[in-house]
Amino acid sequence: RHNDYNLNQPSTTSTDYGATEPIATPDVPPAVLNAGSVDNQITEMQEWFRAFKDQNITHRNYPEYFTPILCYVEGTWIMDDESLEEPFDSDRHQIDAKTWKQLHDKIRWMMNSGRKNSLENLAHLPAAVRGLVNDTYPIISN
Questions:
Q1: Tell me, what DSSP letter sits at residue 39?
Q2: CB–CB of 26/67 below 8 Å?
Q3: What is the Cα–Cα distance from 105 to 122, expressed in whole angstroms?
Q4: In what helix (H) or strand (E) does residue 104 lie, and over which residues does it extend?
Q5: Cα–Cα distance between 31 and 41 in angstroms, integer?
Q6: What DSSP letter does each residue of 116-142 carry, written as one string?
Q7: How far from chain centre, in Å, is Cα 2?
Q8: Is the pLDDT of residue 44 over 90?
Q9: Above 60 in pLDDT, residue 54?
Q10: Has this prediction a pTM greater than 0.85?
Q11: Predicted confidence (pLDDT) per residue in 67-122, tens digit
Q12: Could you tell me the CA-to-CA distances from 6 to 15, 46, 81, 82, 134 in Å, in that order?
């Protein structure tokens, strides 16, 4: 499965762990909206992108419409507690497994058989041994 990533920022209204909210998108420059036909709007928008790429505010005064943001990916190891919670919100996909073991087994079967899940609802999420109980029983994190 591929993940449908969202452009989010830490929540400004919630103190819950991991709470996020969408990053506000800027308005379309009025010069683009007023350019007339779709072809003219595309041509005008390309000029705004060119100004941003070249950092040339004399070509188009882009800063109000091209707000820079720092993007990064966060990751964490999750203890295998026999339950599998959906790690990403998606309008189109959900993991087709109830437990981590079931997910790993389905992925292993698909890879060994040369197949793929046609709905893309299986994800290869890595696992690692993070410790041992009584020096024998592995503690697995996903």
A1: H
A2: yes
A3: 11
A4: helix 100-113
A5: 8
A6: --TT--------EEEEEETTTEEEEE-
A7: 9
A8: yes
A9: yes
A10: no
A11: 888 887 777 777 767 777 776 667 777 777 888 888 888 888 887 888 777 777 77
A12: 20, 24, 27, 27, 42
